[in-house]
Specification:
- This protein has 457 residues and is of the alpha/beta class.
- The chain has 2 domains: 265 residues, 3-Layer(aba) Sandwich (Aminopeptidase), CATH 3.40.630; 127 residues, Glucose Oxidase, domain 1, CATH 3.50.30.
- It contains 12 helices and 15 strands.
- It has an 8-stranded mixed β-sheet, sandwiched between helices. Strands 2-8-4-5-6-7-3 form a 7-stranded mixed β-sheet, with helices on both faces.
- Helix 3 packs across helix 12.
- It is elongated.
- The structure holds ligand BES and zinc ion (ZN).
- Ligand BES binds next to helix 7.
Length: 457
């Protein structure tokens, strides 16, 4: 209870404060040498080469959730935490991969030879009927003519959900969708819960060929999806905990997190081996540092699949743990040479304890860190549980995002060092034993004046 109040008070104090401590002019918010002494206690220990070497190791192969690549990373991370002296746990959870099975589209005359792929969550069904072209499948384009027929749809503009809803409403019994202009292949598409319909994806070329044929005469087609299935896989969170000094325990918990999984087609050096490496380094330097606060370092699995690991972790927290959690720092894409400046994103675009402390630490160490509004990472489940949290990331982000080019050579040691210093100093401000520093002005660093930034991504 008191902790949440504290966060609100601090934020409110910043809004009301007429004093600008740093903003643009000065680079430091604090003339108090003791603030820097506290910061130095942690930041002097940071070894940027440790972070760089860990990114090198983790980005040797993709770390797709539920694969061997992820499991190898998970074991490495666990071993590192244990070497530093943490109680470390692998937290498994089940996720479902989509096996598209076998899909076919045959048309009367038997001369359609295009490649087909079932949509994610397509129904396993075989239907035979006329093909009806419905353009982009907007409500205006879809008429009663599609009733009992297979809708031929161009991808784009509307969501898969909306397009399928629109044709289902008018009684379509199957979906054939072709790719949008400029998009290659036919690996796309998703049917949603309750939209029980067979649906397949075609390349743009194959789709346009059918559209053209339909201009001359009707086409009767058989669309069939077989053996498409959800396959259960296991992904993991890695959780390292350090209890506070027994005589000083104030009951608070601070979490630092990153996601260790990557997308399939890239090594994920920046997304998010960088965040994992920074999390490991902060764990290393804080392992032997006495604190009055419980520290948790967590790397999440299956972030790229929809924040699955962090939702799972947040769901396993007891009410008491949620109440005691005062801050979550999420590190995602924190080392790219080709990205912009550091920013702190919150899902609601509001300041909170984490952004207040992060902005202030930034101002003491390099420059004040602004904040903005964004979800898209593992701070979201913490935010949804009411835990003050923020995503630390550089924006605008780099062109290599989610590509095979997200490699070690794009990593900047300066950026890694700077983020580790700012987040390390922030965590230490909350966790150091002479706190509650936040409500004691003799020991709390000065707040920073920091702004909302509509930064392009
Ligand atoms: N690190 C990214 C999120 C990100 C990318 C934030 C670029 C800001 C700029 C993260 O790993 C990611 O890709 N998230 C997914 C969302 C998730 C819910 C599947 C995304 O943004 O597509
Ligand atoms: Zn990421």
């Amino acid at each position: 209870m008191y902790r949440k109040t504290m966060a609100v008070m601090l934020t409110a104090g910043l809004i009301l404060s007429p004093v600008s401590f740093s903003a643009n002019a000065a680079s430091s918010t604090s003339n108090n040498p003791s603030d820097h002494a506290f910061d130095n206690k942690v930041i002097k220990k940071i070894k940027v080469d440790n972070m760089y070497d860990n990114i090198a190791l983790l980005s040797k192969q993709p770390r797709v959730a539920g694969t061997e690549g992820e499991y190898e990373a998970v074991q490495y991370i666990k071993n590192q935490f244990e070497e530093y002296g943490y109680d470390t746990e692998l937290q498994p959870f089940t996720m479902y991969d989509w096996d598209p099975g076998v899909s076919t589209l045959s048309i009367e005359g038997g001369d359609f030879t295009g490649d087909t792929r079932s949509f994610y969550a397509s129904a396993n069904e075989s239907v035979t009927s006329q093909l009806e072209f419905v353009g982009l499948a907007s409500p205006e384009e879809v008429s009663e003519d599609v009733k009992g027929k297979i809708a031929l749809i161009e991808r784009g503009q509307y969501t898969f959900y909306e397009k399928i809803e629109n044709v289902l409403e008018k009684g379509a019994i199957g979906v054939v969708m072709y790719n949008a202009e400029g998009q290659s292949g036919n690996n796309f598409g998703s049917v949603y819960l309750g939209q029980d319909i067979p649906a397949i994806a075609l390349t743009r070329e194959d789709g346009l060929e059918l559209v053209e044929r339909l201009q001359n005469k009707e086409i009767t087609a058989t669309l069939s999806v077989e053996n498409a299935n959800f396959v259960a896989k296991t992904s993991y969170n890695v959780i390292a905990k350090k209890e506070p000094h027994p005589n000083k325990d104030n009951g608070q918990i601070v979490t630092v997190g990153a996601h260790h999984d990557s997308v399939p087609n890239g090594p994920g050096a920046n997304d998010d081996a960088s965040g994992v490496a920074a999390t490991l380094e902060l764990a290393r330097i804080l392992a032997k540092t006495p604190t009055d606060t419980e520290l948790r370092f967590v790397t999440f699995g299956a972030e790229e699949r929809g924040l699955l690991g962090s939702y799972h972790y947040a769901d396993t927290l007891s009410d008491e743990e949620i109440e005691n959690s005062v801050a979550h720092f999420q590190l995602d894409m924190v080392g790219s040479k080709d990205a912009g400046d550091l920013i702190m994103f919150t899902p609601d675009g509001e300041k909170n304890l984490v952004t207040d402390i992060g902005a202030s630490a930034g101002a003491r160490i390099s420059e004040v860190v602004d904040y903005g509004q964004l979800g898209r990472s593992d701070h979201v489940p913490f935010f949804e549980k009411g835990i003050p949290s923020a995503l630390f990331i550089h924006a605008p982000f780099e062109p290599w995002y989610h590509s095979p080019e997200d490699t070690l050579d794009k990593i900047s040691k300066e950026k890694l060092q700077n983020v580790a210093e700012i987040v390390g100093a922030s965590v230490y401000q909350i966790a150091r034993p002479d706190t509650p520093a936040l409500e004691n002005s003799n020991v709390a660093p000065s707040p920073a004046d920091y702004d909302f930034d509509y930064r392009p991504l």
